[in-house]
């Protein structure tokens, strides 16, 4: 039985313009009222996801900075799962090599990784890291390029969430639309991708919803609450 669901934010519970989907909001409230703990996962900073969780009324742990930070709202404890020193060295190398590196607005306040604007080919960034033997990676979230230590992802953060909730991963569901959701989607008991998801996310999911973003969230949560598989799933 699924007892918790982890939801990505941008592109999953939001429309393309990044406004919250009221359909998703209502679905989240339905899940919470049915004793299914809802957790949020994002590449954004912790205060962003904390505010979103407060407005939505979610009760589960929060994943921020693409898996670098996990927050337990019941205890107020923050778990930092990734360091920043190697990342800062990597950024320094990138800024020396490329003239068009642009830091995002949240760059300076990030604690488990850094984000830059999407002005550089991620493959070029990976090449710099490999040449300098830095254990770093870059992920394109469609909103920014996330520079982080290898092994820092929503999937590993999900294991911490599982521990906090005292639930096995088999009793947790997840939904996400991006490449940076793949590791999380691979680890849970049931995984969903909305119709608007990247092909990488769809490929690893057990279910792809007919609807996009918030409409897809409603489909997924309704299906979890009914305890049966979605019908007529679109092919990947």
UniProtKB/TrEMBL annotation:
Concerning SUPFAM superfamilies, the annotation shows: HAD-like
Q: Name the residues that bind substrate.
A: 154
Molecular function (GO) terms for this protein are: magnesium ion binding; phosphoglycolate phosphatase activity
Q: Reaction catalysed?
A: 2-phosphoglycolate + H2O = glycolate + phosphate
Q: Which UniProt keywords apply?
A: Carbohydrate metabolism, Hydrolase, Magnesium, Metal-binding
Report the EC code(s) recorded for this entry. 3.1.3.18
**Binding residues annotated for Mg(2+), in chain numbering:** 8, 10, 177, 181
Return the InterPro entries for the record. HAD-like_sf (IPR036412), HAD-SF_hydro_IIB (IPR006379), HAD_sf (IPR023214), PGPase (IPR006382)
- Which residues are responsible for catalysis? 8 (nucleophile)
A UniProt-annotated Pfam family: Hydrolase_3
One Gene Ontology CC term in the entry: cytosol
Q: What does this protein need as cofactor?
A: Mg(2+)
Which Gene3D superfamilies does UniProt cross-reference here? 3.90.1070.10, HAD superfamily/HAD-like (3.40.50.1000)
Physiological role: Catalyzes the dephosphorylation of 2-phosphoglycolate.
**What does the sequence similarity comment in the record state about its family?**
Belongs to the archaeal SPP-like hydrolase family.
* Protein name per Swiss-Prot or TrEMBL: Phosphoglycolate phosphatase
The organism is candidate division MSBL1 archaeon SCGC-AAA259D14
